[in-house]
Amino acid sequence: MSTFFPMNNGDAVYSYSRNSQIQRELLDGAKEMMEESIIKNLDIKNILSSSNKFHITDLGCSIGPNTFTSMQHVVQVVKEKYHDNNLEFQVFFNDHVTNDFNTLFRSLPVDRSYYASGVPGSFHGRLFPSRSIHFAHCSCAIHWLSKIPKELLDKNSPAWNKGLIHYAGASNVEIVNAYVVQFEKDMEMFFNARAEEIVQGGMMVLVSPFSGWDSLNFFGSSLMDLVNEGMLDESLVDSFNVPIYFPSPDDITKVVEKNGCFSIEKIELTYPQSKLVDEADAKTFIINLRATLEGLFTNHFGSKIAEEAFTRTILKNEEISAWMQMNYKTCQLFIALKRK
Amino acid sequence: MSTFFPMNNGDAVYSYSRNSQIQRELLDGAKEMMEESIIKNLDIKNILSSSNKFHITDLGCSIGPNTFTSMQHVVQVVKEKYHDNNLEFQVFFNDHVTNDFNTLFRSLPVDRSYYASGVPGSFHGRLFPSRSIHFAHCSCAIHWLSKIPKELLDKNSPAWNKGLIHYAGASNVEIVNAYVVQFEKDMEMFFNARAEEIVQGGMMVLVSPFSGWDSLNFFGSSLMDLVNEGMLDESLVDSFNVPIYFPSPDDITKVVEKNGCFSIEKIELTYPQSKLVDEADAKTFIINLRATLEGLFTNHFGSKIAEEAFTRTILKNEEISAWMQMNYKTCQLFIALKRK
């Protein structure tokens, strides 16, 4: 069973295209490191040999606008490094087949300096011909698991996640372990596919959020409120788990070493400044999470309960602001890799 | 002003995906010729040199299923010709940015033997990096003009197309000339772009319908019925022209020679057997045209009048059956070109 549900599509009030500030802050934080990594590690003359075509992909790109900013940035940095007017860029925007590619295509920047194309499919499998990608980028995406490990749903397993919707806040270590094992399986497939697709000397940059998602507990407690009021069956909460795991530098190092085809050029946890935290803007923060998670909630609970849970979480506004000021720090993991 | 309106999207009763039999009959008719042309003209070892990646594009692909049939056929023929298990195929599905790529991607055959991607944009301009395409296919698409020549809308011009919606049936030669001039301008841009994008020795196959579209007059006369009943202002009919021109072999030869970068390997008018004609299945025929033209009609007349015009045309069912048996013959123009 796949657990993938796309970000909210279109451009309406709770759409991802209008509500992706958290993801943008991560990208802004990664911008400089990506630039440095490209300048330091990319040897374009070697990887292109006689060709003048540079192929970039954004894996798990969603519908914009963040993906356009990143792709234009990669193109810009490579152009500035090489001053080669003959270089031509082709960008492959990838996401699941259920992603709203129509919205993505219709919002492509008119003044882009690359040829654009969309590639539907899971990045846990093959997407491109072998040795055809020179630079792969993946931001805010590898933390989505391909599925929820079945132990979490098994009442007789020590990993049964009763009354919670995520490993954050779970007291039982078996629960987080089940998430880790699934993450490692997914990343094994991810790296196997990329090892085939990326040319020798080609690069891959991964950016992943690292913290802050204990805020998922606020949604969890709204759901439990509905259970206590008799509006929702508790077993529905017990059987719901958000398929997101936030990898640590060690998790990544382990999967990269197991794969064996990439060298880690840089791996770093950073704490970008967050406007949301400065202003403890809980409402924006929650709506942002909603744009990301609504499909997942609606699929499991139906739209009425999902809507009610989001509305109630917004009412916890002050409590969440206080929590943000005390505990929340935007934290991201940046990884630059090179195909050996 | 662009005149492009996509085929009816989704998969509902009047959608293009369910109503594209005419287009499929053309493709079936072209199948054998395409196979012969590939076998005779494609020198894959030369055009790929040391690479094993073969890039195909379907220009103006719409939303399927016809495009999947053609692309699989091209892949199959190339595979059978070369028996090279290392060959990898990447197919670029192209259509206007308003095309329903979500439906296209969601209906991609699961057992396809190529990597799929979508490329949004007009084929009258550049879509791909230079020398990056090995085989371009374009079926039932070049006859769509990029815009309606303005003379057709000018009351003082000899090309004013009063009371009609197409050059078919127009008595004034200036009207058809205006269509021809626009077609030549469009094809100049089309061939200039493809000359940059297709590798030396690469191929392009064009298939275009050549007749049968005088049936557009049935829609025109339904519109004039509405005018006569006072439901529609005549000036709205006078200012409406279907932006479709059916090129002759001479038209194509002229634009190819002007461009100078392609050799014509085969150019042929054929008359494939049509199930629609055998059964004089006027209803299917009209619904098929509707799936293709509804967006265009709705944009100009509004959905109420467009709907009314289509309903009335279906009522002309018997008249159209009789006309089909007397006059209609599926006729297509097949062109195989090679990049010099």
UniProtKB/TrEMBL annotation, chains A, B:
Gene3D superfamilies: Methyltransferase, alpha-helical capping domain (1.10.1200.270), Vaccinia Virus protein VP39 (3.40.50.150)
Alphabetical keyword list: Magnesium, Metal-binding, Methyltransferase, Transferase
GO molecular function: metal ion binding; methyltransferase activity
GO process terms (BP): methylation
InterPro entries listed in its UniProt record: MeTrfase_7 (IPR005299), MeTrfase_capping (IPR042086), SAM-dependent_MTases_sf (IPR029063)
Record bears the keyword DNA repair: no
Pfam families (alphabetical): Methyltransf_7
Family: Belongs to the methyltransferase superfamily. Type-7 methyltransferase family.
Protein name: S-adenosylmethionine-dependent methyltransferase
Native organism taxonomy: Eukaryota, Viridiplantae, Streptophyta, Embryophyta, Tracheophyta
